[in-house]
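User: Structure tokens for this complex, please. No commentary.
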Amino acid sequence: MEHSHFYAQIDRYAYTNALAKCSPITKGFFAVSALLISVSSSSALLSATIFLITTIVTLYVAKIPFHFYFDMFTLPTIMLMLSCLFIALFFGYGEKLAEIGMLGFTWVIFKNGVTLSITTFLRVESALSCLFFLVLTTSITDIFITLRKIKVPKTIVELSLLIYRYIFVFLEVSAKMNTAQTLRLGNSGFINRIRAIALVAGNLFIRTLEQGERTFIAMNARGYDGNLHVLEDLPKPTKIALIGIALFDAAMLVLIILTISIGVI
Amino acid sequence: MHIMEGFLPHPWWEMWFIIAIPFIAYGVYKLTKITKKIPEALPLLALMGAFVFVLSALKLPSVTGSTSHPTGTGLAAVIVGPAITSVLSLIVLIFQALLLAHGGLTTLGANVFSMGIIGPIVAYMIWLTCKKMRLSNSVGIFFAAALGDLLTYIVTSIQLAFVFPTGTGFFNAFLKFSGVFAITQIPLAIGEGILAVMLFDFLAKYKGQLLDKMKVIKLPQSKTVQETAKQ
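Assistant:
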């Protein structure tokens, strides 16, 4: 799975970045509030500001290498560009921007379709930068502990932990099976490859379930009662950081009001 | 169908959250009940979640601001019921947003609604109908998984069409989005149906008793009587 490789890198940065020791509540507060502000307005100026600020924080404060950050943006941006092109060319109404005569059809491009696609593009980029900040600076374990602290139902957190573990069991088992098949010339040639994929698909599920059940029995034998107790010694959020983030959010809200009253998009 | 982070503007993303929350709340209630009653079902629930995660990570790009991929929620709905499937989808979608940057946190409401609520409910209803018509399990699973998958994409097209209208109205925009999805999604849905049938057969063979206990399939009466006698 090519995803697992990319994911392993994200996970490594989540544990090793310069903000890793910082309280997850502070980081979560910054990322989520910036995210909410950037998606609740369609102002291009606001989107660009939030994108720049979160990118600077990610690159210079959390010290994520530029090339990796750039790589993370590449695929979503390409897909986003295609989507926005699709919107600009086929959607919108009202004022016409261009008309193209083609094979007897007239193809109309509307002005508000183009505006919509540009604002959407910027909004998605700024929202992605907020999401990437959270992903690259906070490890999943910290997120679990934080979720438990903010009183998310216990069953959800437990099930999430188990699913998280199972995803890796899935990947491990399938990698092992693939290696075994390749060693036995299972992936040589088209027909053999199809057969190999079918065998893996059929057996992967049952193998994972068996391994999971063994884990579950082992957990029960050690007194598992539906709660996983882990040591929760996370750093507490500092007041200065929280106030700073609140001020930043307030400034962004003022910017929204300003752009609306001046009439800039 | 994971709509990208930030692709839905202001009133829409909040609206989908509000619509999705009651279903999720009911799902959490059901989940708590079933894990209390049948604790050994927990690994199966988590496995269904991981299965949904892996299947929906196999994405093909689509030009609609989202992606095209199998969902896996149809099979999950048949096995663990649509209410719990909605909770599983919520967890899986959060993981995909955080681990793979696939989907997003603000579009979570819309994504959960299409993949975790409507798809599974439709799949479950199809499964029940097929059972009532006394069709074989395989036929029921195939249609439940394939149609549940397609319905998910129809809901996503509706969600996108609300946001990006065309001059000729909502329906026209809906046709444009669903047309783009259909190219990749119809073959994927058929593939997912076949995979679901294979997996369900495996599960029924190896975990028949657990499925019987969870009231998914009914084992022949004689066997259950024997087992109660054993206990």
